[in-house]
Amino acid sequence: MLVIVAPGQGAQTPGFLTPWLDLPGVADRLTAWSDVAGLDLVHYGTNADADEIKDTAVAQPLLVAAGLMAARALFPDEVAARKLVGAVAGHSVGEITAAACAGVLNAADALTFVRERGQAMASAAAVTATGMTAVLGGDPQEVAAKLAEHGLTAANNNGGGQIVAAGTLDQLEAFKADPPAKAKLVALKVAGAFHTEHMAPGVARLAEVAPTLTVADPAVAYVSNRDGEVVGSGAEVLARLVAQVSNPVRWDLCMETIEQLGATCVIELSPGGTLTGLIKRNVKGVATLALKTPADLEKAAALVAEHAGEENAA
After folding, report:
1. Taking the model in full, what pTM does it have?
2. What is the architecture, at CATH level 2, of domain 2-125+197-312?
3. Catalytic-residue membership of 92
4. Which of 92, 224, 246, 270 is catalytic?
């Protein structure tokens, strides 16, 4: 069974869209999507520097547009694609990409939603100086105790002993000075404490946007970040996308579900690499491919032919 996944914020790198512009129609599609996103996606994906694309209001629409662009390159016929793909999942903002791939939202509504999400989360992040730190290894109970001691939230559980702590910069600095035993801490290049109570204003804003969008039930199995469950209602998917802004990402549970569904191959949309790395370490016996550039399309198409089929459709 073929599973398509979409990365979250932090996966973007300067110039990562440049090679994709050589494909016919990509520049025109990105230009059209730029009007909806309120950003020059071509500029930000090719010429902008790391600081520019770190901006939450930029990074999130850029990532969703890139994922949808890569999906279109791999599957030119969206309807046919949904008969080949068994399940979709995304990490954080990648959930919006996954929702569009599943047919819950059309591309324009996905970009409208992510535009508002990015702006709302950037505004929320500006209220208090907050951030995120990856915690690699350590005893899980001790890690949880240290997070609680310093008032931090486990904003992401990425499986395999990888937790992302989130909170104020002062809390994170105190945590750095008093880390859990045998754990490695890595400060993340993000602009705020995403998926925590600090993002509550973003939830309120997205709740106002949601009723303006056209929603359909997923045409493939949609695996949710909230609890790793497969969600069959488009309205429920959208409600979860709204609430997830201030709720922890349980990618560990998503990977468990992907394995339970019988995945044999996972392809990560551009700018891929992060999720396939996690899947390699946590889901054994599954072929993986990060669709980073058009040079990966031939291999991706071969994997689709090998692992996909109408019998795999949810």
Report:
1. 0.94
2. 3-Layer(aba) Sandwich (3.40)
3. yes
4. 92
